[in-house]
Amino acid sequence: MLHLDALILVYHFAKISDGAILEIGAFVGGATIAAAFGIRDSGQKKKLLTIEPGGSVKHKRLGTRNILRDLERNLARERVADLVTLIKGQSFRPETVSAVHQTLGSEQVGLLVLDADAAKRRDIDCYRDKFADQCWIVIDDYYGADSNAKITPSRADVDELVTAGLLEPLGFYGWSTWVGRWCGNAAE
């Protein structure tokens, strides 16, 4: 779950970016709704794709027995369901990658939000051919409590991409969110 500071950035980037928005790991829709509001307020027609495999989460405050049901309810309640293309599945599965590429067509991604598992590099590699030059990137679970098992592998993936010149860091926001831009098109 993204902190309010990071959600405001997602809203802003969705509003100002050129191209589609791709979110990997919608959970129950906080960032999805922020991006949809940004699209709505931009006055432009932009595609918003979100990938979510579903399941359940046990947590005293954020728990859900059915992630997909709660996500769809939240999108409907906030009146943004018509702005979102929900792709149900794991981000790295060939059928999911194909569905994203097919839905995007020739459009490029102007904003990528990664808030799924710790395999940030894997997800970037699956979709990097669709990133626009200077695509905004928001990556959760980069920094935080040692109890979060996603932190160490997420940070290693992001740091490797920064060192390779593929990502440009802009800062950290909220509890643990890395924000930057894609530089891979220039580096390739």
Summary, kept brief:
Helix content is 39%, strand content 23%. It has helices at residues 4-16, 30-42, 67-77, 94-104, 120-127, 151-163, 184-187, and strands at 20-24, 48-52, 84-88, 109-114, 131-139, 167-173, 177-182.
Characterization of the model:
The protein has seven helices and seven strands, in the order αβαβαβαβαβαββα. The protein is an alpha/beta fold and 188 residues long. The chain has a seven-stranded mixed beta sheet, sandwiched between helices. The model has no long low-confidence stretch (mean pLDDT 92).
The outline comes out as: globular
Mean pLDDT: 92
Q: Care to count the β-strands?
A: 7
Give the end-to-end Cα distance, rounded to a whole number of Å: 32 Å
Strand content: 15-25%
Sequence of strands across the biggest β-sheet? 3-2-1-4-5-7-6
User: How many strands, which pairing sense, and closed or not: the largest β-sheet?
Assistant: 7 strands, mixed
Helix content: 25-40%
Uncertain stretches of 5 or more adjacent residues: none
> Which structural category do the helix and sheet elements fall into?
alpha/beta
